[in-house]
Every structure is written in C-alpha cells, then in structure tokens.
Design brief:
Radius of gyration: 17 Å
Structural class: alpha+beta
Largest sheet: 5 strands, antiparallel
Distance between the termini: 52 Å
Helix content: 25-40%
Number of helices: 3
Order of helices and strands: EHEEEHEH
Shape: globular
Length: 132
C-alpha cells in the first residue's frame, strides 16, 4: 500500500508594511529585519516576500527614515486569520524596535483596494513581458 501525500494548501495575503526607522538606516537592513522576524516567529511562522514600494525612500533628510514595503505573506496549511494585520504589525513593530530603538515604528495594512493591489503588484513582480 502506497501513501500519496497531497500538497498542503497555502494562503497568501498581500500587505503594505510602513516602517519608520532612525535616520541613516538603510532600506535593505529594514527589509532583512522584517523578513527574519516574520519568518522565524514561533507561534505563526510564514513565508515572507518583501519589496520596497516604488517611490519610497529615506525622506526627509532630517528626522526618521520612512519606507513602505509590499509584502506577500504565505501561511502554509492554515487559513488566514481575521486579525492577521494586527498580528503581523505586532511582530514587525517588536522586531524593528528591538533592532533600531524605541522611536522606530511599523504599521501593516492588509485591506487593499483592487487598484492599489494592482499598482503594488508591479512593485513586487515588475511589468509583465509582452512579446513584440
């Protein structure tokens, strides 16, 4: 008798993660910290794919650096919880504050309009190739 394993269903959610970090902090450092924190969380491990949203950067020159990331969160074998944005925000905020200090902050939104999701999709995946 052979056992056939069926693939585990996955649930993917697109989110916008806005981070405020101290001046001089690089976007790639923030991205790595968020990825590490969300991927390695004990209670709710998930696959995370982050991309810096187009048009965001370390503005203004003085004061905190503000970045916006587009995230695709994938939870294997689980349904998407109702309070996913709150849970992800809590994990992200704790990781950012632990790494960069108290004035750092993170906000997460999973409720996106179709137009907003479409615009952010191109930040994450790029413009699709069209044959000439």
């Amino acid at each position: 008798m052979s056992v056939v394993s069926t693939p585990t269903p996955t649930s993917a959610v697109m989110a916008v993660v806005r981070v405020e970090a101290p001046a001089g902090v690089d976007a790639h450092t923030v991205e790595a910290e968020l990825t590490r924190a969300l991927h390695a969380h004990e209670k709710r491990p998930m696959s995370v794919e982050l991309s810096l949203a187009d048009g965001t950067g370390p503005w203004p020159r003085r004061g905190p650096a503000r970045y916006a990331f587009v995230a695709v969160l994938t939870l294997a074998g689980r349904t998407v919880p109702d309070r996913l944005a709150c849970q992800v925000e809590k994990i992200a905020r704790k990781a950012i504050r632990r790494r960069f200090g108290r004035p750092a902050d993170a906000q997460v939104r999973t409720e996106l309009s179709d137009a907003e999701a479409g615009a952010y999709w191109y930040s994450l995946r790029g413009t699709p190739h069209r044959p000439g």
